[in-house]
Amino acid sequence: MPPLRPVRASVPGKVLIAGGYVVLDPAYEGLVLAVSARFQTRVAPSILLSPSPSPSNPSPSLPPPVTVGSTERIVRVHVRSPQFTDGTWDYDVYGASEPPVVHLVELAGRENPFVAAAIRIVVLANLHRHGLAELKRRFGQGNGPRGSSLSAIQITCTADNAFYSQASAVEGLPREAVAPALRDMAPQAPLGLPMAEVPKTGLGSSAVLVTSLVAALAAYLLQAPAERDAVHRLAQLAHCLAQGKIGSGFDVAAACYGACLYRRWSPSPLADALAGWDALTAPSCFAQATHPAAWTHVATPLCMPRCLHLVLADVVHGADTRHMVRGVLAWRAAHPQDAAQLWQQLDAYNRAFGACLARLASLEAARAGDPQWPKDVDAAAASRYAPSAAPAAPLVPADPSVNAVAAAMTVNMAGIRLLWAELGQRSGVAVEPPAQTALLDHLQRTVPGLVAAGVPGAGGGDAIFGLVLGEAARDALDAALAAYPQLVIRLPVDVDARAGLGETDVGAGTAPAAMSEPAGGLCQTIEPLQEL
Ligand SMILES: Nc1ncnc2c1ncn2[C@@H]1O[C@H](COP(=O)(O)OP(=O)(O)O)[C@@H](O)[C@H]1O
Ligand SMILES: C[C@@](O)(CCOP(=O)(O)OP(=O)(O)O)CC(=O)O
């Protein structure tokens, strides 16, 4: 058997700019952007390493058993997230074919449910499809260094800096030194802290971890790029099972497909599969859960106008999405009529906002090469887009000028924010807390070219986003954020110029920056075979 070639996959983080809460219902869409910050997973053959000690297990014992119950050991997996001081997990993966079961034993007793679920789902899919003997062969068993009968792989996960709060890196710096310090940080910089002590910024770290890991490991076992829809299904299953709740899945969808108008899948045909891993050992259940027909989501690609930039800022308070979702859904269940009306009104504004984005993109495409276009954008960016009164209705302008579309985007976002204020007041959940309202209103009043600003996703005290026309407006927004009396940390992201799951390099070298730019959608390249 030829040497197994390393593989890597990268995916973008997400930001839901319209559709929070309503997107949990398959009747309504969410508008999700993919951001330029990416998460990369590399899978490569490894030598067998001893398990690393952990605080709870300073001297993990070896050798672990070769069989557990009726299952056999398939492979050892060393997972490394070098940005964290405790980003080390060493698993022995056990499995059997009849029925196909997989479980993972972390050799020092550490936990990372998302890593474990991603590995487990890919191994399970391969067991269902190929059986145990073939799976061992695909992992290179018997092929290992010095004839070792147990093969090993190393999985390396690296995230762009924007995924995690960099508050500790800038702590104690004078305000004016914060932005330059963040700008000068090394890419994928070590955080110098255990994972649990680093707040996340809301770009969906678990979804990108799971999606890139599933894609990379599946491609490693195929030694060829994995099919994107299949990656989506497995990653979504693994994410749901690890998370123990059924989110809408917009984060996994954005990782796979990039910016999109997203309508979620219906949970009912998947209920058995989502009940737990045991159910997935039944071939009929696994076949149903991985059949395209069970996945009724729609991810319509969203073309972002190039003249529009995304600004995201970490407001360094943090928000508990689960808690907020529970509160909002409890109110919805208790007040179905009021909620139905509010959901429909929100949906109308969300859709109008999405239509304006599409209109701006097509306007831009139609004016490609027109020397007047950048001047029109600059002129439009000089305006302040602050709605003076509550909008009467969602607005998609007939007038195809940048100004008119930008003004309509402002109106529609104002409508969304007013309805969110109502939702917050009625449900008792602070979906746009007063501190964020003050910041957003201040920005909208003072920054020219800011066409929309809001709280992304579930809202709360996590982050704010702004959409600005042109680079000068982006700079103006940056300056306004830097001067704001409360600490607001700008995340180094814009919209993703590429889309979704990036190329899966098979046989690629170690340099993380060496990935080429896919043209859009899933783009996978197979590199020439490299001897290890
Ligand atoms: N770089 C990483 N390496 C390994 N696991 C990670 C990494 N980033 C995130 N995770 C996993 O994702 C979990 C965070 O998930 P969650 O709290 O749902 O945050 P998010 O909202 O960002 O997805 C972590 O506890 C860990 O299990
Ligand atoms: C409420 C939601 O519709 C949106 C939540 O979006 P966030 O971006 O806030 O999510 P997390 O990254 O998990 O914190 C729930 C959902 O759609 O799953």
From TrEMBL:
<dbReference type="InterPro" id="IPR035102">
    <property type="entry name" value="Phosphomevalonate_kinase"/>
</dbReference>
<comment type="pathway">
    <text>Isoprenoid biosynthesis; isopentenyl diphosphate biosynthesis via mevalonate pathway; isopentenyl diphosphate from (R)-mevalonate: step 2/3.</text>
</comment>
<dbReference type="GO" id="GO:0006694">
    <property type="term" value="P:steroid biosynthetic process"/>
</dbReference>
<protein>
    <recommendedName>
        <fullName>Phosphomevalonate kinase</fullName>
        <ecNumber>2.7.4.2</ecNumber>
    </recommendedName>
</protein>
<keyword id="KW-0067">ATP-binding</keyword>
<keyword id="KW-0547">Nucleotide-binding</keyword>
<keyword id="KW-0808">Transferase</keyword>
<feature type="domain" description="GHMP kinase C-terminal">
    <location>
        <begin position="421"/>
        <end position="483"/>
    </location>
</feature>
<dbReference type="InterPro" id="IPR014721">
    <property type="entry name" value="Ribsml_uS5_D2-typ_fold_subgr"/>
</dbReference>
<keyword id="KW-0443">Lipid metabolism</keyword>
<dbReference type="GO" id="GO:0005777">
    <property type="term" value="C:peroxisome"/>
</dbReference>
<feature type="domain" description="GHMP kinase N-terminal">
    <location>
        <begin position="199"/>
        <end position="258"/>
    </location>
</feature>
<dbReference type="InterPro" id="IPR020568">
    <property type="entry name" value="Ribosomal_Su5_D2-typ_SF"/>
</dbReference>
<keyword id="KW-0752">Steroid biosynthesis</keyword>
<dbReference type="InterPro" id="IPR006204">
    <property type="entry name" value="GHMP_kinase_N_dom"/>
</dbReference>
<dbReference type="InterPro" id="IPR016005">
    <property type="entry name" value="Erg8"/>
</dbReference>
<dbReference type="GO" id="GO:0010142">
    <property type="term" value="P:farnesyl diphosphate biosynthetic process, mevalonate pathway"/>
</dbReference>
<keyword id="KW-0444">Lipid biosynthesis</keyword>
<dbReference type="InterPro" id="IPR013750">
    <property type="entry name" value="GHMP_kinase_C_dom"/>
</dbReference>
<dbReference type="GO" id="GO:0005524">
    <property type="term" value="F:ATP binding"/>
</dbReference>
<dbReference type="InterPro" id="IPR036554">
    <property type="entry name" value="GHMP_kinase_C_sf"/>
</dbReference>
<comment type="similarity">
    <text>Belongs to the GHMP kinase family. Mevalonate kinase subfamily.</text>
</comment>
<dbReference type="Pfam" id="PF00288">
    <property type="entry name" value="GHMP_kinases_N"/>
</dbReference>
<dbReference type="GO" id="GO:0019287">
    <property type="term" value="P:isopentenyl diphosphate biosynthetic process, mevalonate pathway"/>
</dbReference>
<dbReference type="GO" id="GO:0004631">
    <property type="term" value="F:phosphomevalonate kinase activity"/>
</dbReference>
<keyword id="KW-0418">Kinase</keyword>
<keyword id="KW-0753">Steroid metabolism</keyword>
<dbReference type="Pfam" id="PF08544">
    <property type="entry name" value="GHMP_kinases_C"/>
</dbReference>
